[in-house]
Specification:
Elements (H helix, E strand, L loop, with lengths): L2 E7 L11 E6 L3 E7 L5 E8 L5 H14 L1 H4 L4 E6 L4 E5 L8 H9 L6 E6 L5 E7 L1 H10 L4 E4 H10 L8 E7 L2 E8 L2 E9 L3 H15 L8 E5 L6 H9 L3 E3 L20 H10 L1
Parallel strand pairs: 2-5, 5-9, 10-13, 13-14
Antiparallel strand pairs: 1-4, 2-3, 3-4, 6-8, 7-8, 10-11, 11-12
Helix pairs in contact: 1-4, 5-8, 6-7
Length: about 280
């Protein structure tokens, strides 16, 4: 059953909607979007929780949202959807071949989840992101949002990180969704890992992070960890991570505090979506 987790109206002046940009994020359990005007001011943000058990149900739930959500029916000047499915692999440019993408994804992720294989070159890096998306979802979005563009979340996440001041050391970025985390691990200024993990208990996330530290030979106590997304600083989850990682910080979104509709929420809750929406605007 589809549930609305957040519905934040930040701007209603008709003139502000004339040249707006609709950015949507699609995963197996979350559908969210942000609408920004041409000055990158947030107009509306909405997050849905999905409850699909397979690709067919996912398509039905997304189709129902698209058919009933009045904001999505607005004729946005620009439309971008961002796929956040875990079947993704970075491939050095010299080894990339268009015809081999499907076989690579199946080799690394198995053949349980069938879909269409897409790829894109990551700006500023000599790498391609090869990823898989449910075919029915891709077709639905292309039909529903004409003249739209699409990316994979990992590609834009790396592009966004590249725009930040260069950090020569090591660090983790951890992005939280309900029962799922995305982890980016940098060692000595170089990206070593970009991975999605499913978790049930707080101890699961701590285990994943500690295991990454062990593999990369990093000290948990001395490795900065930046958290963003749906994590509460008063939660057991935050406390469990803090037991092992002393250099925790929360990623905010510049200008979020100036948006009255966001005042009641922690800055880091929506920083991932807003950051990427700004990145593709």
């Amino acid at each position: 059953m589809v549930r609305t987790l957040f519905d934040i109206a930040a701007g209603h002046e008709p003139a502000e909607w004339l040249h707006c940009h609709l950015t949507m994020e699609i995963s197996r359990h979350i559908f969210s979007y942000a609408v920004m005007n041409q000055d990158k001011k947030l107009l509306h943000l909405r997050v849905y929780a999905l409850d699909a058990h397979d690709n067919q149900e996912l398509g039905e739930e997304l189709g129902n949202i698209i058919g009933t959500d009045e904001i999505l029916k607005n004729n946005a000047e620009k439309k971008t959807f961002i796929y956040n499915f875990p079947e993704s692999q970075l491939v050095p440019e010299k080894y990339f071949h268009t015809d081999g993408g499907a076989a690579l994804i199946e080799l690394l992720n198995g053949d349980l989840n069938k879909g269409i294989t897409l790829s894109e070159r990551i700006q500023g890096r000599e790498e391609y992101n090869v990823y898989q998306v449910p075919a029915e979802i891709h077709s639905l979005l292309l039909r529903s949002f004409s003249n739209s563009k699409y990316w994979h979340y990992y590609s834009l996440w790396m592009l966004s990180e590249q725009k930040q001041p260069a950090a020569p050391g090591s660090s983790f970025s951890v992005l939280f969704y309900p029962n799922r985390v995305l982890v980016s691990a940098v060692k000595e200024g170089q990206l070593h890992l970009l991975q999605s993990y499913v978790y049930e208990a707080a101890e699961d996330v701590a285990y994943y992070l500690l295991n990454i530290c062990r593999q990369l030979q990093l000290s948990p106590e001395n490795t900065p960890v930046v958290l963003s997304g749906m994590i509460d600083v008063s939660s057991v989850l935050y406390t469990e991570i803090y037991k092992y990682f002393g250099q925790l910080s929360l990623e905010g979104f510049p200008g979020a505090a100036s948006i009255p509709a966001l005042e009641e929420y922690p800055d880091h809750f929506f920083s991932p979506l807003l950051k990427l929406a700004t990145c593709v605007s």
